[in-house]
Amino acid sequence: MSEPLISLRHIAHTYLAGSALETVALQDASLTLHRGEVAALVGAGGAGKSTLVAYANGLLRPAERGRALVLGQDTADPRCDLTAIRRRVGLVMQYPHQQLFERLLGDDIAYGPRQLGLSRDEIRERVRWAMEAVGLGFDAFVDRRTFSLSGGEMRRAALAGVLAMRPEVLVLDEATTGLDPRGRGMVHGLLRRLRAEMDLSVILVSNEMDEVAELADTVTVLQQGRTILSGPTREVLSQGALLEEAGLAAPEPMQIAQDLAAAGLPVPADRLTTGETEEALWQALTR
Length: 287
Known about the structure:
Rossmann fold; 4-stranded antiparallel beta sheet; 6-stranded mixed beta sheet; about 20% strand
């Protein structure tokens, strides 16, 4: 296998170290992303997911323990070009209002492309493409006041602002939280299309286990700031006891498949998606 695009190894991180408000966020956390892959990061609230992915584009740099190699650069090295990394690794934050700041939506999405020195026409084309890609029609939304948007629209706007930079790696921190089923389906379809068209690599932070099962190639499980499990999606999500220990559960289709297998039907217990479980049940019933 080729060298990973992002390799975060044994990271430790403490907020406000030495103060009365000291909080240990990470103790021994690792995450790897290879080109063209969707790597999911899951864990209960407070497990350290958002802190760990902040190392994926240099927002945080190893200081206590561990090593972060991003696109071949060691982010702890003073010579590391963090600006170049952040142009190539786009981060969509858990709370989208944190990365929206311009008065008008079109100007907000255009901010990143402007920093690349693109022509006016190129910037406008990128803004139009990114807005249409996330389901915010250019003509309807380009002149909308940014903070008049709904929560779901803000989340899509934040994603559009990152996509307009045409990153190689997209880090999505709970990107579909707050979206209705149609909005989640749109994001899922967009990710599949971008992978196919742009060879986009994705780190997907999510506790929606059905979403992880549908999209991810690999899964890393965090528990109290430590990586306790990592590997191919089917293998990791089959580890019911470890997932439960981490405050998680297997995807619902897998739980149904396991119940069917326990009831004596010849259904493989590691079915990940609704489609896989339905097919396995149909085959079992028609034998």
